[in-house]
Amino acid sequence: QVQLVESGGGLVEAGGSLNLSCVVSGMIFSQNPVGWHRQAQGKERESVAVVGSGGNTGYGQPVKGRFTISRDNAKNTVTLQMNSLKPEDTAVYYCTAWDLGRPYWGQGTQVTVSS
Q1: Is the Cβ–Cβ distance between 46 and 93 less than 8 Å?
Q2: Mind listing the pLDDT tens digit for each residue in 3-28?
């Protein structure tokens, strides 16, 4: 059974930084892409960042240049370093992992950026 356990998140002032981490179990982590999505209140869930099995990365336009995704295959962990946070980054952030093309989701962690 694939499980994703997130940590990090919280309340930060605009311009600040936060780091999210996610430990994935129940799948061959190193062979699959992992990433982060977010969903703000009243809005659809959107992709934030993804890192492929080979280390290639992709970012949503709103976070390019501010967020950095990385993976540690030895620890089955994916992290999201978020810098220069803005109030519009406020959302529930979900860790995502794909196994055989099927997405799996963490429980979500709240990130709130105050102005």
Answers
A1: no
A2: 999 999 999 999 999 999 999 999 99
